[in-house]
């Protein structure tokens, strides 16, 4: 199955994705957009979420948390992947600290959830502290 083809996700080949992406435009039909979204969903689920769930299950009852490093590595790869999709980039530039900081600063799950809050307090020392904490997270 994997011998002669490169897979972008568990169900979709890189060649099929390139073919779809070459012809995909804002005016493409719903079927093409549905396929593109399904490829994205399959990629995120198949490469990151499903594997992380299996590793977490493996961790249950294991006080050494031997798979915690692998889970954290997958989480970092997922953040990097999502940030690339957000910005529309083909790759994350190195060093990739800026990509992680941007993801964490712009995600409603890792900040105060509102753009209004960010605008009002962006120059405040609190934001500098949050940014510093996020950078420390990256260095972990």
Secondary structure topology:
Elements: H1 14-23, H2 30-59, H3 68-87, H4 97-106, H5 115-121, H6 125-139
Helix pairs in contact: 2-3, 3-4, 4-6
Search tags:
140 residues; single chain; mainly alpha
How large is the radius of gyration?
Answer: 18 Å
The helix content, as a percent range, equals: 55-70%
Kindly, what is the distance between the CA atoms of the first and last residues, rounded to a whole number of angstroms?
Answer: 37 Å
How does the overall form come out from the CA principal axes?
globular
Structural class by sheet pairing and helices:
mainly alpha
* Number of helices, counting only DSSP H or I runs of 4 residues or more: 6
For the sheet with most strands, the description reads:
none
Total beta-strand segments: 0
Summarize the helix and strand pattern as letters: HHHHHH
Strand proportion, as a percent range, falls in: under 5%
Unreliable sequence segments: none
The average pLDDT score comes to 80
């Amino acid at each position: 199955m994997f011998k002669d083809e490169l897979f972008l996700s568990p169900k979709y080949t890189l060649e099929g994705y390139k073919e779809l992406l070459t012809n995909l435009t804002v005016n493409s039909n719903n079927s093409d957009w549905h396929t593109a979204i399904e490829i994205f969903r399959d990629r995120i689920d198949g490469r990151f979420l499903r594997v992380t769930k299996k590793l977490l299950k493996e961790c249950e009852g294991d006080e050494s948390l031997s798979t915690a490093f692998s889970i954290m590595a997958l989480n970092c790869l997922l953040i990097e992947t999502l940030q690339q999709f957000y910005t529309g980039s083909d790759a994350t530039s190195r060093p990739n600290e800026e990509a992680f900081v941007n993801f964490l600063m712009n995600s409603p799950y890792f900040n105060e959830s509102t753009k209004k809050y960010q605008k009002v307090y962006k120059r405040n020392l609190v934001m500098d502290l949050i940014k510093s904490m996020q950078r420390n997270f990256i260095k972990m």
